[in-house]
Each structure stands twice: as C-alpha cells, then as structure tokens.
Amino acid sequence: xxxxxxxxxxxxxxxxxxxxxxxxxxxxxxxxxxxxxxxxxxxxxxxxxxxxxxxxxxxxxxxxxxxxxxxxxxxxxxxxxxxxxxxxxxxxxxxxxxxxxxxxxxxxxxxxxxxxxxxxxxxxxxxxxxxxxxxxxxxxxxxxxxxxxxxxxxxxxxxxxxxxxxxxxxxxxxxxxxxxxxxxxxxxxxxxxxxxxxxxxxxxxxxxxxxxxxxxxxxxx
Amino acid sequence: xxxxxxxxxxxxxxxxxxxxxxxxxxxxxxxxxxxxxxxxxxxxxxxxxxxxxxxxxxxxxxxxxxxxxxxxxxxxxxxxxxxxxxxxxxxxxxxxxxxxxxxxxxxxxxxxxxxxxxxxxxxxxxxxxxxxxxxxxxxxxxxxxxxxxxxxxxxxxxxxxxxxxxxxxxxxxxxxxxxxxxxxxxxxxxxxxxxxxxxxxxxxxxxxxxxxxxxxxxxxx
DNA sequence: TGGATCATTTTTGCATTCAAAATAGAGATG
DNA sequence: CATCTCTATTTTGAATGCAAAAATGATCCA
Lengths: 221, 221
Known about the structure:
Chain A is mostly helical. Chain A is built from ten helices and two strands, in the order H-H-H-E-E-H-H-H-H-H-H-H. The interface between A and B is medium-sized, with 31 and 32 residues.
C-alpha cells in the first residue's frame, strides 16, 4: 500500500467519524487493520496532523482533532474566501462543456431535493461546489479547498436541515448556477459567500461544537 | 529534537535554497547534520511533501519541489485571495494598537526604501503583510497563508527590483496603510490584490521559472 | 476510607535492520 | 565504438527492536 493511500484511508476513517473527535487513535489496532507496521502509520499521522485532522501530543500519542466553535467559524471563513475566489476565476475560465456538466449536476441535485433524499442531495451539492473550484483551473486552490472542506465536512453534512433552510439553499444554488452561466464572476462570488455564511450559521446554531457537550452526548449515546 | 523542529529546520534549508529546487534530498547527509536517524527525517519529508515543498518519487526518494511558471501563477492567485480576505477581516477586527504597530513597521520599511536597503525593505514588507494577516484573527487563514507564502518566498525576495517598480510598491503600501487606518475593508482588499498582481508580474517577467532554464543556469554557474 | 508513593506494564519515539527496488558498472555483442 | 545485458552496489521503504516516558495499579499509611 502506497503512502498516499495510507493517508487517505486514515483520513476517511476520521471523516466517517469512526474515530470520534477527541478520541485517542489506537496505533496498534490501525496497524493490524491496514496491515502495515507502525512506521508508515506514524508517517501518515504526522501528515494528517499537518492538515489539522489529527492532534499530536508529545509522548502521549495522537488524537482525532476536536474542533471548537471558533475553529469551525475560522474554517468556514476561509472556505468562503476560497470559494469566492474560485467562483471568480471559474467564470473567467470555465468551458461551456463544464458549465453544462455543472448544470446537469444541479438538476440532479434539485431532483434529490424534491425526493427529500438528503444524503444524495449533499452528494450532489458537494459535486457542484467541487466542480466550480476545479473549473478555476488552479490546483493549489483546489488542494487547499480540499483540506479545508475535509475538516468541516462532518459538521456540514450532519447538521439537521429544516425545510425552510433547505429551500433557501436550493434557491441559492439556482442563483449560483445562473451566475455561472452568465459568467458573472462578481455575482457568483457574492452568492457563494452568502450561501456559505448561511451554512455556517446553520452548523453553529445546531450547537455543533465538537466540545465537551457533544463528547457528553457521545458518551450518553 | 521535536518533530516540528525537524520539519522547521528542513523547511528553512529548502527555503534558503541550500538544496536547490529539483535537487535530490540527501537523506543520509541530512540525518548526520541534524543528528537524527532516517525515521524522523522521513516523517518530516512526508509532511513537507504535503505542504508542497518536497516532491516524493516512489522508490526514487525525494526532491526539493521545482515550481513551474504555472505553479507560481497559481500560488500568487491563491495568495491574493488569502490576503484580500485577510484585509477585509482585519479591518473589522484590528485594534488601534495593532494599527499603530503596522504603521510603525510601515515607517521603518519606507526608511529602508529611502536608504536603498532591499533586504531590510523585504523584511519589513513581509512583517506588514503578516501583520495584516494576523490581525484577521483567523489562525486557519494564517496557517494557509504561511504555507503558500513559504512556497513563493524564494522567488518573491530574489527578483531584481527596478527603481520604478520599487517606487510603485512603496506607494501601494502607503495606500494599504491608509485603507487599514480608515478600516476600509473593501478598499484594502482591492489594493492588496493589485499589489500582489504587480508583484506576480515582476516575478514572472523576471523569467523566474524554476525550470530547465534555471536548472541550466545553475549547472553553468 | 482516602490518598500518596512506588513498582509494573504499556505506549511512545527513534535507531537499527532487512527485503525489495532502482542505479551503476563491467563485460559481451553487434 | 556504441549499445545491450546481467550482476554488484546503493538506496529506498517498512518491520523490528530498544530505551525512555507515561499510564496503571498495588501497597502502605494516616
């Protein structure tokens, strides 16, 4: 198994919440499961620590990083900035073909919304946002976006969704697609910011906080 | 020596150009120099690879990352986005005290400009940009900014500077300070973008390119 | 019974070792 | 003389082993 694959596997384990935030990362167990020794595992953990998904405590091992409200706010803020930038660049560079692809993804997502399939809706949602970021044609931007969204993903796609909020999100997505089709960079950038600001408010209001509170909730459950 | 320290030491070696872009990283030699064994060294290299400073070639070791023109453009583009965001946030959050500090740094930098001390000018320049980014009060943003600027630093502070360009840069910095003092987020953001766009043009026009061309130059030299 | 102290076990971090892969070099061949 | 092939050496990537640090828990004493 290649180094990058090890990193990816552990990242998935963390993002799936299989090792909950704040929990110790069981080295030996993971070694057995991934069928590797401690050396490559530890290399991967250091990389994930640099990404912010893992917290290293000298002489006390590693834990799945636990996000505070402040962390979450900061991450959303940066995510907004990155998506806004991506939106502007995408409008300058995107091909008609790519726009058509995103329009198709949008239609599919709306269909999932109509069917009330939240999971598929989130999948489609993510595909659209990633599509815009990729259309910016800037791999550096895409890579940073990937690490930032990875860190907030759990909260983002776990927050309960009221009908009103969901409807708002879908209408915002209509505007997003519209701006993209008009290649209105400033407009797209603006809408994306608002869209993410709303999402952030949802997440934070949902009393997200991977803090003692939700630790407690986990223990009770 | 702590893990983070090892990463920092190697990062400095790379940023100082002691191992030039594209060159193989001599594992054994670095081990001796840092007085560590290969295990922690390789952990650090993988982290630096994730940061983009090192390129890992499976079964062929690691090299100091070599930036193409495209990489440089992408990095500047992202840097612009991050600084623009930081500028907006800083205007909302910065204290009078912090503004005074940055004003002082600005005055010092102008003094270095008048004296024609390019190295000190660059130092001051960097302090101001970092000051603004830190004033945004967003550690996630600050961390991403640090990695992006690290990657372009060499080119940024090595490019030759014509009197015209230098004068322009200083006048832009006057405008930056001005916008900050007025807490004009939109204005600051706008100026920072223009400032970085100019810097990028300088660097790229200077025929930067850590490519075959400069490889050749290195070999000849 | 509560808590402090010290031995035992476990875990961590790193050096070393070992197998596999890549590179270099000598010799053969056209 | 250039090129190809096959072996020897080096280098890489990962498993193991070992010393130091931390966690555990057993014992003693107030």
